[in-house]
Request: fold
Amino acid sequence: MKSSDSRQLLKKQPSSDPQAVLNRLMALCSRKECCVWHIQRRLDQTTLDDEQRQAILQKLLRDRFVDNRRFVEIYCRDRCLRARWGWNKIRNGLTRWGLRDHLEEARRWCLELDPNQSALNDLAKAKWNSMILPGESLSFLERQKRCAKLSRFLLGKGYAPDDVFARVRFYFEPS
Reply:
């Protein structure tokens, strides 16, 4: 069963059976990493009362099906290394899920994963090379436009403005 199927089950058939809901959530947590926020949203779709919802959440936490710290670590690793996001975008994602108390750990993990910001350098180089033809000579105005485009791209990836502008300055100067 795909995760979207389990989502549909909880949406289409709000269950009043706590054991059935617990089993579904355990299956979901076995397939993908979830944080407390995700589980609470799923529990809100059921017809269970608050005591039953809290009991299910506590059971999932006690049995370590749900662990916010583990979720934050995996989220940071995935977003830093695969999606090549910057700290600002990662921080916003964690904040959206109510994980503000783990931001310091997340920042440390991101710095450990990419201490020299090689992802920023690689992204800037790849994007610049995709905008410039080999041997193309750019006027000042064209270079300025493309540097602005490069800056917007890198800022959208969540990198700090100071880091982005320091990197883009390298491309602004004619070679």
Notes: Residues 14 and 46 are 4 Å apart (CA to CA). The chain has ten helices and no strands.
